[in-house]
Amino acid sequence: MKPYPKEKNLDNHSKRGADLEKEINLSNTYYRDLDIALIYKKPTPVQVVRVDYESRNKAKITEAYYRTPSTTDYNGIYRGKYIDFEVKDTKNKTNFPLQMVHDHQIKHLEKVEQHGGIGFFIIRFSYHGQTFLVDAPTLIQKIKSTNKYAIPYEWFLEHGNLIQEGLYPRLQYLKVVDAIYFKEDS
Amino acid sequence: MKPYPKEKNLDNHSKRGADLEKEINLSNTYYRDLDIALIYKKPTPVQVVRVDYESRNKAKITEAYYRTPSTTDYNGIYRGKYIDFEVKDTKNKTNFPLQMVHDHQIKHLEKVEQHGGIGFFIIRFSYHGQTFLVDAPTLIQKIKSTNKYAIPYEWFLEHGNLIQEGLYPRLQYLKVVDAIYFKEDS
Ligand SMILES: [Mg+2]
Ligand SMILES: [Mg+2]
Questions:
Q1: Which of A4, A38, A147, B102 is the most exposed place for a label (fewest CB within 10 A)?
Q2: How many domains does chain B have?
């Protein structure tokens, strides 16, 4: 087995990762309905080139292109704090490939920390059926200090925080946020 | 002159308001470049129905529709606080027509306040060449207590906060945020 197998269709807006995002969206709906947190997926930015106005109220976009987002997947507010995170899903068994993390995401999450917000990654190793929450500054420091193209799965067992799964919410990631970022209060 | 003239193309994704948004986007770029605040326009949500993959890296969307956003125009972080606001631009000389404010925007901004964030409206009366920042709870209370279809321009002179315009940033709206929400610190 090759040490750092390439992920296919990395930036091809494929469906990969769609399940994880769906679970996070459902969890966010639950958190919003119970007034626990106000967190939304940022829409994928689309550059619209041509629109047909068939009827006054239903404009049909007939030519458009995906644009590279400048930021991350999710943001919002929880317990009075600004929350911002990026979601990644890998099928890789032994490593998290660093090509999955883009420069603009690192820069954005660094700025979130700088401005006093809470920034993290939610990373799923689907082979292991495990989803980790990792503090952004911690992962970014690791990314900057490694000379490899990937971070071993074991690193996440040690430095990541396993997110419990359930029915409501599907991914109880705010429990982990409580434990890491609101230690004093809980 | 009719008391509450209707705005044309209200939800038709017209270009109206585009100038104001452009000025706010430029101001946000300035604030980000100087590490003053991290505030972005939320992309307009689009439901993609069909995509042509002509080449591996440039997917062309050939059928898509605008969706109604669930939230507001902008959010981000400033001085450690979550910031969220909606932008409106009216040509109306004497009134701000309430049909411009949607239910989901009111509900969202109420939740922002409830969770400890800072929520407001930026409203431009283009006839007067004036742009006001109005605290969301204040405007929402006014909307809920009036039985009219509009709020008089005079109300904004009294309860709104005029945003100074300049070169950099174009709209100095964070000065107003400082004055209203960070009184003690300045
Ligand atoms: Mg992602
Ligand atoms: Mg608007």
A1: A147
A2: 1
In a domain? residue A60: yes
Residues forming beta bridges with residue B134, ordered by sequence position: B121
Domain containing B145: what range?
A: 18-43+69-185
| Torsion A145-A85-A18-A174 (CA) sign | positive
User: One digit per residue, pLDDT tens: chain B, 186 residues?
Assistant: 333 344 443 333 444 567 999 999 999 999 999 999 999 999 999 999 999 987 666 899 999 999 988 899 999 999 999 999 999 999 999 999 999 999 999 999 999 999 999 999 999 999 999 999 999 999 999 999 999 999 999 999 999 999 999 999 999 999 999 999 998 875
For residue B32, is it within any domain? Answer: yes
Collect all residues of chain B within an 8 Å Cβ-Cβ radius of residue A65.
58-61
Residue A66 lies in a domain: yes
A86 annotated ligand binder: yes
Q: Which residues of A touch B (CB under 8 A)?
A: 11-13, 32, 35, 37-38, 40, 42-46, 48, 51, 56-66, 69-71, 75-82, 84, 108, 111-112, 114-117
Distance from the alpha carbon of residue B73 to the mean position of ligand 2, in angstroms: 6
Note whether residue A3 is domain-resident: no
- The CATH code of the domain that includes B115 is 3.40.1350.10
Instruction: Tally Cβ neighbours within 10 Å of residue B107.
Output: 13
Q: How many angstroms away from the CA of B146 is the closest CA of chain A?
A: 27
